[in-house]
Design a protein that fits this description.
Elements: E1 3-4, H1 6-10, E2 20-26, E3 31-37, E4 43-46, E5 49-52, E6 67-68, E7 70-74, E8 80-84, H2 86-89, H3 100-109, H4 117-132, E9 143-147
Amino acid sequence: MCIRDRRMYGARLDTKFIALVFGIYDASDRRLTLANAGEPYPLLIRGGKATLIEVSGVPLGLFGETQYDEITVDLLPGDVVVCASDGISDAEDPHEESFGTERLYTLLAEVTARDSAVAIADRILGATDEFSGVNAAADDRTLVVLRVTDEIASDFSKLPIIY
């Protein structure tokens, strides 16, 4: 499937653009389909090792005829997928050193089977807060963590409705 960028480009938002990762997770098949528009590559954590899910694309709104490729990843129970904006890796300490991807990889290597998606997200945000100190709010930090379980049924009644 190919997604085109005509609507955002046509809105003529001057120098504004939107970066995002779009994903659809099929719980019954444990299959995740992703497209990327300018965000860092998502990370797959499997067996204590973080690897990049290499899906790229330019931010929405920059070009009128941009096409976005998608990638499908078959997941296993226990896998974790982390989509983190550049505000995570770019978080700076008081000496303007970046948190970086290596610190994130080290943090994710410590994920255990007992860690929930919420616990993993809290650990990442806590580590960047601690690293940044007073600079913690210098850049936006967007984080989505998917933890694959043995369950294949989903109870969507507990999800928030966002309008």
